[in-house]
From TrEMBL:
Belongs to the BolA/IbaG family. InterPro entries: BolA, BolA-like_sf. This is Bola domain protein. GO terms for biological process: [4Fe-4S] cluster assembly. Residues 108-120 have a biased composition (Basic and acidic residues). One of its GO terms (cellular component) is mitochondrial matrix. Residues 100-120 are annotated as: Disordered.
Length: 120
């Protein structure tokens, strides 16, 4: 019985390693660890762009993302600096074949979030 439980645990770990969204998983982990966001929304819009000429022959389903990140780490920084922070975190995912092709970012501090939501 102990052996069966051990094998089931190995299968579970194996299936977790076979994620169908490895780029999204990596983005979530890196952003969460580095920026400690109070809000992190990741939208995969790849299906909306699969017909584009630049995407012909690309088999990846993780190429176009829209992110909303609310983090105290953005305090005192202008939007370009905030975006550079995120690009730096995701440089590997952006450089790999079939990786991130387009990234739309909304970066806010917790203090900015209520005002931004009121406008939307």
């Amino acid at each position: 019985m102990f052996l069966r439980a051990g094998l089931a645990g190995k299968r579970l770990l194996s299936s977790m390693a076979q994620s169908t969204t490895p780029i999204e998983d990596a983005m979530r982990a890196k952003i969460t660890e580095a920026l400690k966001p109070t809000t992190l929304e990741i939208h995969n819009d790849s299906h909306l762009h699969s017909h584009h000429k630049a995407m012909q022959g690309v088999t990846s389903k993780e190429t176009h993302f829209r992110l909303t990140i609310v983090s105290p780490a953005f305090a005192g920084k202008l939007q370009p600096a905030r975006h550079r922070m995120v690009y730096s975190l995701l440089k590997d995912e952006m450089a790999q074949e079939g990786g991130i092709h387009a990234l739309q970012l909304k970066t806010r501090t917790p203090e900015e979030e209520p005002r931004a939501q009121a406008k939307e």
